[in-house]
Every structure is written in C-alpha cells, then in structure tokens.
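New to this. Please check this protein:
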Amino acid sequence: MENVLDIYEQPYNRLEPVVCFDESSKQLIDDVRPPTRSQPGQAARQDAEYQRNGVANLFMCFEPLAGWRHVTVTDRRTKQDFARQMQWLVDTVYPHATCIHLVLDNLNTHVAASLYETFPPAEANRLLKHLRFHFTPKHGSWLNMAEIEFSVLSRLALNQRIPTLSDLVRIIGGYEAKRNAKGASVNWRITTPDVRLKLARLYPSIPD
C-alpha cells in the first residue's frame, strides 16, 4: 500500500511517468424496437426489451499528473492483450521514458510472464527494462486511480445502450478527447501518514 502511495507523492517527471492501469468491461446492447425521442408534453421512451451483442473489454491507461488518459477497446482480456498494451506504452506513448511506473492490481495477466508468452525473449526483456510494476494490495484496488477514471467514464459516456464495438470506440473516443483537452485529473488526498493513522490496526505493533 505504502509503495503505491509513495509513488503518487512523487513530483511529475516526464522520464518516469506514473501510469494507472486497469480493465473493465461493457456489455453491448441494442434496442429491439427503436426508442422514441422526446416531444412537447411527452418524454423520450425506450422499450425495456433489448438484444445482447456480446461484451467488450476496456483497458484504461491514466496518467494523473499529466491529466491524460486512453481507453483501448478489445474483444478479449488475455495475457497477449495485456502484453501488447505494455508494448504500446513503451514504444508509442513514452518512447523517451527511462522507466514507466505502472500502478495495477494483482490480476493473473499482470505479470512479466505475459510478455514472455507473447513476444520473443529479447523483446519481452527490452520492454520490461522500461516497466516497473506497483501492485495495489489485496482488497485495495481502490488505491488505483484508474478505477476513479473508469467511474467517470461510466457516468459520462457508458450509461446508455451501446449496440456495437465501433459505436463503443466512437463514444469513448469523444469522451477521451474532451477529458484530455481539459487536462482533467484526480484530486488525490490520501497520503502515507494518513493511512498509517487511519489503518493503524493493520500495521504490526512494535513494543517499546
């Protein structure tokens, strides 16, 4: 826990960006009957019946100090998908970074082995030299600021029926562009001293 909080307290360094990474999903749902728009004296109507079109996976990369985020939409959430996200961060987003600090949870795909199972050993090793994983504790994924950004995304863009993958990509792209243009970030106030005080019961007691 303290490792993650200490990383959040570091000043901005473009050569060592702190990126919060997380996954979520969105069920693709289409209307069986076209909804009706609102008219004078009549509210918009949407039939309760719907059609399921599968589930899409969302990868969130969020750099709080830069006010930047990007969501990649994929069909699946596999070790190979995770590895390609890491390659994209290293080679495309932060090609000049000496080290990318990644805050992420303990999902079974979030391991160095995912890169070795996806790329040749030399390529996996090259990428891992630029990555440093900082894992949130068990039952402590709330420490990952990407979860906060996912909450905003759900509230502002995903609280509607989205029928296809292409529609989802378009809607998320619009949300992302607006948030990035504003440089929207998170007002994070939790510090290591705060945690030591509030969660004292979780720390070992050292006798005098």
